[in-house]
Design a protein that fits this description.
The protein has six helices and no strands. It is mostly helical and 147 residues long.
Length: 147
Amino acid sequence: MSDREFQIAIGVLEDCRRGIAAGKAQRWDVVKWGIGVNLALATASFALPAISPFLVLLAVIVAGTSLWFVRYYNQRMTEVRRNSLHVVRLISAAGIDYDALAGVNTADAYSTGANYDKHELFAFTFLLAISPAAAFIRSIWWVCTGQ
């Protein structure tokens, strides 16, 4: 591998790192907006004089759409990780031990695929799944108390 090829490979790895960072930011933005909209819908449901199944349905749609976007951005990051793994293999084949320099076994780290960030994904899924509950609780409260 020539110096020029090595510099291009490092540039590609940097682009991959930026792609992963952007994907994480996009995922987090989707979660923030999904929960924020559902809290606004819950607040609106408490302001109404009667039960509103439309607001509960809308909250479920917002949560479902947000979950879809989280999965979409996660899949994009998984593809970027696969691309970076390919570049690491090329660098290693040229005699440069990238894993030793980086201090991580890249193949093992990225072998989990879409489950790479499983703890974050679990937390995001849980938060988005329960976010429509606030609007639903208002509906239950209205049925129980008549207010």
